[in-house]
Write a structure and sequence with these properties.
Layout (H helix, E strand, L loop, with lengths): L5 E4 L27 H7 L1 E4 L10 H6 L9 H8 L18 H4 L9 H7 L1
Length: about 120
């Protein structure tokens, strides 16, 4: 497990706004194995660690993947779009803008080695 785990809060957003089944819709891999679902449902917070593949890609990339309803691990996303993702595919996180989606790409947050390599 990674040295640091980060907590992300979804407060202010309804649980129904989140796809709380984070299993990849193609291969079934749990993209957020560190999430304690009871804690998430109670507090809206979850923990990210170096086993997680949580990210946000630009709309055109998700569209190329067929706009799946649910999560994709980075490998399945790349299989769907027919290429390896690049840093420009991931919107940059700006701490001055409250955007929890782009916050998922914050380079200081842990992720699997392959996702870290793709996000740049």
């Amino acid at each position: 497990m990674g040295e640091t785990a980060f907590k992300l809060s979804a407060r202010g957003r309804k649980i129904a706004d989140w796809d709380i089944d984070w299993n990849c819709v193609d291969c079934g891999t749990n993209t957020v194995p560190s999430v304690d679902m009871a804690e998430f449902e109670r507090s809206g917070a979850f923990t990210l660690d170096d086993r997680c593949e949580v990210y946000w890609v630009r709309k055109h990339v998700w569209h190329l993947a067929g706009n799946p309803k649910g999560s994709l691990c980075i490998g399945c996303l790349e299989a769907r779009i027919g290429r390896r993702t690049k840093p420009k595919d991931f919107p940059r996180y700006d701490p001055h803008i409250q955007n929890i989606d782009a916050a998922l790409n914050d380079p200081s947050w842990p992720a699997t080695p392959r996702l870290l390599a793709r996000r740049g």
